[in-house]
Design goal:
- The structure holds 2 protein chains of 2 kinds.
- By secondary structure, chain A is of the alpha/beta class.
- Chain A contains 12 helices and 10 strands.
- In chain A, the strands form 3 sheets. Chain A has a 6-stranded mixed β-sheet, sandwiched between helices.
- The radius of gyration of chain A is 19 Å and the shape is globular.
- Chain B is mostly helical.
- Chain B folds into 2 domains: 68 residues, no CATH class; 314 residues, no CATH class.
- In chain B, 68% of the residues lie in helices and 4% in strands.
- In chain B, the strands form 2 sheets. Chain B has a two-stranded antiparallel sheet.
- In chain B, helix 1 runs antiparallel to helix 2 and helix 5 crosses helix 6.
- The radius of gyration of chain B is 25 Å and the shape is globular.
- Classes of the chains: A alpha/beta, B mainly alpha.
- At the A-B interface, helix 2, helix 3, helix 4 and helix 6 of A face helix 10, helix 11, helix 12 and helix 17 of B.
- The complex binds adenosine-5'-diphosphate and magnesium ion.
- The site of magnesium ion has 3 residues of chain A, from helix 1.
- Adenosine-5'-diphosphate binds next to helix 1 of chain A.
Chain lengths: 257, 415
């Protein structure tokens, strides 16, 4: 992916397997977010290929529009700077995430407009799914609050719940632990492991906090200046000299703590 | 501290005066005089001085009032949901009995009809601006499409109002979709500029397409509506009965006025019912989500193109209905009824009402359309009062009269 003369992501290839947590790490500006934007269709890479092995067959992501990637290929994401529907309630955020299912159930809302029971059933199922994820992220008691009024840590978890409500096969999380306190961060780890184990989906995780990365990831890809400088299991990455030079070598508060 | 606030106030007032001077000098300061030896310019600096004085003084006054009243003018708390529902029903009940109240007469019902047209337009635009967050400044175009659709369909094919109404809505919705395309990629203020241009284009087309629209002369003699075939004319058309004959009443021109009032009331309530309902449906929720964050919408698999076009089309459809009603009420339409200022008034109603609040829009329409109608005696000061009222309200309640939003679904209620 190129911006003018800058190669933000270049000559990168790796794979993330279902049922694995794959962490993408690298210094600021390494191209991690850009990589996510390519996978989720927000940017179109000038060259290269991104294939998703969907249960129903392989899908070439780099050709699809961003919303089609979520709707058809089942890739969901969160954002580095949280993007909730701030003035809608927590529950509404989770219902909007199930828009496509509800649309087809309600014949583009027409059935709902006429008050047909077909839509009522679909909405009940959507609420059940939302309730399931609310329980998982511990926001059930806040379901009717305005999403924008929640504390930061809750908003992060709500965004993950919202992404999961789309029913993805691959979940991309852009720095989900940023700005969380240690307790919230530990909760997040449990949540992510839980999602991996229960839903059997692939997780792609950008993270700065090395303690989080080392603890929960099965596989790590290290980027620097848009290139992959290392890839492997957490233990191997920890010992990789190139990684230590580029990333771990920097004085880092979290590491010290 | 005191001295500092006093100084900022004074500086503020002086700056206001300066701007007023710059504007007043060319506009009020010179006067073209027609005398015996031709045209001559004469100065009118006293007017300029007055303008500067009023603006600077007013600015100082507003500043002082804000300082003194800060925190003292209570901003009433948002009424709870149950209360709002009662208020809504009370308003509907009042609207239903209004024509039969002792103090109401033909004049009042006629004015109420006008207010209801704007309530309906406000509710229609609210779908586009309040729910979907697309700042549409060309809304009057769809109102015009509705009006001309009815006038032309009825005159060319002799179709009745009741057949033309849905057709006009459909045509307006189609136009909404077509005009929606150019603004799909735009955001915020850019949408406002482009829609404003598109609205003007429609008006200019109506003005110049002589053969079809009659150009600036408009279309006159538009068919009046009937109630299940009962005409409201003094002398019914061949083979038809009049309303008065059928019910054994004495003929009165008031019948038609009251009928039109109930017709627009029904249309407006239909718009309201639709909005209340669609907000709880996937399409409506997607509109609101789009207003909140388009990128997040995409990341959830929502096709923003469809969401935007459906909002434009739906809003336009209700404007089309209102336009048909307008044509049948007036019996005459011309491009002059569909100028940009109409769009601006409708948008002002939505913004003043509080972006998305149905009752707020009714209040705003009463304020912006109803009150000026009553104060027609004020004549040229009407617009001044109008502007002043807008400024005061926006100072008092910057987010509109009623701006709280109720969730469309509650977990509490679903279990
Ligand atoms: N839309 C864009 N236009 C131009 N440059 C961009 C754009 N997005 C990202 N970049 C550049 O690409 C590089 C990688 O950015 P990013 O992917 O955000 O890094 P990271 O998420 O790893 O911190 C940076 O140098 C950034 O300035
Ligand atoms: Mg980033």
């Amino acid at each position: 992916m190129r911006f003018g003369g800058l190669f933000a992501v270049n000559d990168l290839s790796f794979s993330a397997r279902p049922g694995d947590i794959t962490a993408v790490i690298g210094p600021n500006g390494a191209g991690k977010t850009t990589l996510f934007n390519c996978i989720t269709g927000f940017y179109k890479p000038q060259v290269g290929r991104i294939t998703l092995n969907h249960p129903s067959g392989p899908i070439l992501l780099e050709r699809l529009d961003d919303y089609v990637i979520t709707a058809k290929a089942g890739v969901a994401r969160t954002f580095q700077n949280i993007r909730l529907f701030a003035r809608m309630s927590v529950l509404e955020n989770l219902i909007v995430a199930q828009h496509n299912a509800l649309m087809s159930a309600s014949a583009f809302s027409l059935a709902g407009l006429l008050g047909l029971s077909r839509y009522a059933g679909a909405e009940r199922r959507a609420v059940e799914r939302a309730r399931h994820w609310l329980d998982k992220v511990g926001l059930t008691s806040l379901a009717d609050e305005e999403a924008g009024s929640l504390p930061y840590g809750h908003q992060r978890r709500l965004e993950i719940a919202r992404a999961m409500c789309t029913g993805p096969v691959l979940l991309c999380l852009d720095e989900p632990a940023a700005g969380l306190n240690p307790r919230e961060s530990a909760e997040l780890n449990r949540l992510l492991l839980d999602i991996r184990d229960e839903n059997g989906i692939g997780l792609l995780l950008i993270e700065h906090d090395m303690s989080v990365v080392m603890e929960i990831s099965d596989h790590i890809v290290v980027l620097d200046y848009g290139r992959k400088i290392a890839e492997g299991a957490p233990a191997a990455i920890k010992a990789d000299p190139a990684v230590i030079r580029a990333y771990l070598g920097e004085p880092d508060e979290e590491e010290a703590g | 501290m005191e001295a500092k606030t006093a100084r900022t106030l004074l500086v503020d007032a002086l700056l206001g005066g300066l701007v007023a001077a710059a504007m007043a000098l060319p506009m009020l300061g010179v006067r073209l005089e027609d005398s015996a030896n031709g045209l001559s310019l004469s100065g009118r600096l006293d007017w300029v001085a007055w303008a500067v004085g009023i603006v600077a003084g007013g600015r100082l006054l507003i500043g002082l009032l804000r300082l003194l009243l800060a925190g003292r003018v209570p901003s009433p708390p948002a009424p709870p949901r149950a209360v709002m529902a009662y208020v809504g029903w009370a308003m509907v009940a009042f609207a239903l009995v209004l024509p039969f109240l002792p103090f109401s007469g033909r004049n009042l019902v006629d004015k109420a009809t006008l207010v209801l047209i704007y309530v309906m337009l406000g509710w229609g635009l609210n779908i586009v601006v309040g729910l979907a967050g697309l700042l549409d400044l060309g809304f009057v175009a769809f109102y015009a499409v509705g009006a001309y659709s009815y006038a032309l369909l009825s005159q060319t094919f002799g179709l009745s109002f009741w057949v033309c109404l849905p057709l006009a809505g459909l045509l307006a919705a189609t136009f909404g979709m077509i005009l929606g395309f150019p603004v799909l990629r735009l955001r915020g203020d850019y949408i406002a500029i482009v829609t404003m241009g598109l609205g003007e284009i429609i008006r200019v087309v109506l003005q110049n397409w002589q053969d079809v629209t009659g150009g600036p002369n408009g279309i006159s003699g538009i068919e009046r509506p009937s109630l299940f075939g009962l005409s409201f004319k003094m002398v019914p058309p061949e083979g038809k009965q009049t309303f008065a004959e059928f019910f054994g009443l004495e003929y009165s021109a008031d019948h038609r006025v009251i009928f039109l009032y109930f017709l627009i009331l029904a249309l407006a309530l239909l718009t309201n019912l639709f909005t209340l309902r669609i907000r709880r449906l996937p399409v409506g929720r997607a509109w609101e989500a789009l207003r909140e964050d388009e990128i997040a919408c995409r990341s959830l698999g929502i096709n923003p193109t469809l969401v935007k076009l459906s909002a434009f089309a739906t809003g336009a459809m209700f404007a089309g209905f209102a336009g048909s009603f307008f044509a049948t009420r007036q019996g005459f339409i011309s491009p002059e009824s569909f100028t940009f200022i109409e769009s601006a008034v409708i948008l002002a109603i939505v913004v003043l009402g509080g972006m998305g609040s149905q009752i707020g829009i009714v209040l705003a329409a009463l304020l912006l359309v109803g009150l000026p109608e009553w104060f027609r005696e004020l004549q040229q000061f009407r617009m001044l009062a109008f502007g002043g009222a807008m400024v005061l309200i926006m100072l008092w309640k910057p987010s509109g009269l009623l701006s709280t939003r109720e969730p469309t679904i509650r977990l509490k209620d679903t279990s």
